[in-house]
Fold each of these.
Amino acid sequence: MTRTISILGATGSIGASTLDLVRREADRWRVVALTANGNVAELARLAREFSAEVAVTADEACLPELREALGGSGIAAAGGAAALVEAAQRPADITIAAIVGCAGLAPTMAAIGQGGTIGLANKEALVSAGEVMTSAVARHGATLLPVDSEHNAIFQCLAGNDMRHVRSITLTASGGPFRDWTAQQLCAATPQQAVKHPNWDMGAKISVDSATMFNKGLELIEAHHLFPVGLDALRIIVHPQSIVHSMVEYRDGSTLAQLGPSDMRVPIASVLAWPRRMDTPCAPLDLARVGELTFHAPDEVRFPATRLARQAAEAGGAAPAVLNAANEIAVAAFLAGQIGFTRIAAHVEDVLSCYAPPAPACLADVVAVDAEARQRARLLIERAADGACLT
Ligand code: NAD
Ligand code: MG
């Protein structure tokens, strides 16, 4: 039976891994919408290869180039924020939400609105929108399946069990490329060093988030919304080998873990085939070769991000959206060489301490909080660059 699929963020790392799996079972899939930001040559190439119905660039200025690249193909081309939302609204059995950052929020909400299955990679959207998103999922009868490897692992470990029997959930963290660096070394960390993850091949933003541990902080908030066990029952443990992707502990003392290679095609395949299974080309897990699986507690002094995220989750309301927006701006500033690595977390803390808007009640509220937090975050960075006092 043919299934329809849309991929929001088709040219990124998750988009490429998803399309790799779709390509291997091409006769089973019909591609509805593929979207990207500025990389329209790649977007057009993918749209042609997969005979998509529509290709959308979020950057309206790139639309003429996209139209030209798709000339004669019969594939519709569109551009801009409204076109992205319109594409996400097209009926599809499954939509992979793989845009990076809060830019993916409106299209993800639009996909939820059509009531299909959403494979959620875009954690920033759920972190920012929180209950606005989870209540929309319930209202529209949509199904949210986690692509993020940890949450996908937890989802698999929960299958067939009763949430009331869960004692705790533990997210594993690789610790990133700077896991063993001293505080002094961290001050001098460069963007090139930060984007080189030891285990995973990912986009630049999430790679920096792994280095700061904001990725795990965002994932803690993501887990809080996906698996309602209470924040106290959500834990983080550093596991440098990235083989155990997360664990669920039950009240009887059993702990279930999901293991696999560090290849995002494994969780993506579990989402694409759910509730069944599909073949993947991933290298089988060879535990004898891995040899050792080690675990240790995270260090929240060198890496304050998980502490900040837990505080934001405890505060609830708009705090996670503010944390996420401030982090996105700080990561961009770090990648652009404007601030040092350790300033990222310090900057997020500064923004959180000076901006505490009321809880958002709808998508427009979340978008407004995100925009205001970004503006404040940019201003703080500019002032710091001018040498002005930040208080
Ligand atoms: P990436 O940078 O490789 O790709 C991002 C995609 O989003 C691209 O297609 C890009 O064109 C598009 N995009 C960027 N800015 C946009 C904008 N303003 N408007 C519309 N589209 C835009 O990122 P990635 O590593 O694939 O990550 C995507 C999401 O998946 C992130 O939220 C990330 O946290 C999450 N995730 C990624 C991985 C991974 O292994 N890469 C693992 C778990 C979760
Ligand atoms: Mg993850």
Amino acid sequence: MISLVIDTDTGSDDAIALLMAAAHPQATIAAVTTVAGNVGLAQATQNAGRTLEVAGQTEIAFFVGCDRPLVRSLETAIDVHGSDGLGDTHQPVTTMVASSEHAAAALVRLASESPGEHTLVALGPLTNIAVALAIDPDLLTRFRSTVIMGGAPDMVGNTSDMAEFNIWVDPEAAARVFAAPGHRVMVGWNVATSAALVTPEQRQAMGELGTAAGVFARDVTAVVESFCHEQLGLPVFALPDPIAIAIALDPKIATRVETRGIRVGLSNDARGATFPTWVTDDLPVTDIVYEADAEAFAAQMMQALATLD
Ligand code: BDR
Ligand code: CA
């Protein structure tokens, strides 16, 4: 079994990633932690709780984390995901109650209680993980691996010219996470746009599965589909967090990986850029995904959405 700890700023694609983790026959979710990003912290927590209800997994350990980046103001992505982060579906208020333990403290505790057991999957800005690293600098060595949805190793960003959203929102946190010892996999915007694109027909097919998860996935992605069509002129939209969770669940979905250091830009136009480098004297390396199996990803996602009812 794969045991996952999932850190999420739950927008529409995070929600689908949570459903995929919940549905996977060889995975358990040990904990979900929330962080501000796509939406504010309270909304991210509501969305994560609501998604776990749709998945029928209300017993999962649930922790609330940081409500803003380490040093910068929070900038959300409600223009992309909807005012509620879930496609303006305005879901019922979740009945899930989070623990009183802070997410960063929970990450440290979970990792130290069971070294090498959990895979940490980061689907939002890396604030909670950076705070946890301040408590335990070797934190990532206590996870089996840390799979990060974030970055743009090809320098084609979605938030600035070079930067992807999760890294751009809290680059100081990201710099700490990419500099920490431990095994890390980076699934960037390059992978989302090459292997996790969804056409209008594919989105409708989610709903036609007729399951609670399929209908939910179709509905929460309405705003991101419109945003891509109307603002960017694109006939498709991307699912970055689902391809990251798919790779965490089945590493073979990553078909080309290169191992390099990642330096994070902190200033001016370089804010949030992720620079792959051979110069790793003082820097641990990261497995950077460059190519992934789009068909295997789509199959895993549709199987998950068909399963949860
Ligand atoms: C990332 O930013 C968010 O909008 C998505 O949820 C994903 O984690 C993509 O850049
Ligand atoms: Ca996310």
